[in-house]
Amino acid sequence: MNADYTAVATLAETYARAFHEGDAATLRTLFLPDCRLQFVAEGALKLFLASEWIDIVANRPSAASQGHEQRSALRSIQFAGPHCATVMLEMVTPTQIFVDVLHLLRPADGWRIVAKAFHSELI
Fold first, then answer.
1. Residues 36, 42, 44, 49: what is their CA dihedral angle, to the nearest 10 degrees?
2. Whole-model pTM?
3. How far apart are the first and last CA of the chain?
4. Class of 3-122 per CATH?
């Protein structure tokens, strides 16, 4: 397995763990500051800045704090080139299933999430 694949898979694992634990400090290190998160709800496009979404995650009870085990699965990693990748990650919370599509770029300081689109459904 090459180093880039390992680095991207590690980022995805870190992201899933930080989401599960509500770890805003770690999430902030993974996203570029102006990253946007987009999804469709009731047929309408919705948008958050990563900083807004991280604040929401930080200010709600995490699944970990409620005693739930982390349940996530890396569905795929694809590379467009040496500095561009896409990750598809499934995360299950006590009430929802999220499938996140994370778009990553690798500037000099390492792989970072530059955009996120996601689907969620109630369990």
1. -20
2. 0.95
3. 35
4. alpha beta
Strand pairing category for 96-105 and 112-122: antiparallel
What is the domain partition of the chain in residue ranges? Answer: 3-122
pLDDT digits (tens, 9 = 90+) for 7-44: 999 999 999 999 999 999 999 999 998 999 999 999 99
Task: Give the residue ranges of DSSP H helices in 1-123.
Answer: 3-21, 24-30, 50-58
Token pair for residue 116?
């996120």
- Structure confidence at residue 82 (pLDDT): 95
d(CA 81, CA 60): 37
Contact indicator for 117, 104 with CB cutoff of 8 Å: no
Residue pair 72/16 in contact by the 8 Å Cβ criterion: yes
pLDDT > 80? residue 1: no
Q: What is the CA 62 to chain-centroid distance, rounded?
A: 15
Contact of 24 with 55, CB cutoff 8 Å = yes
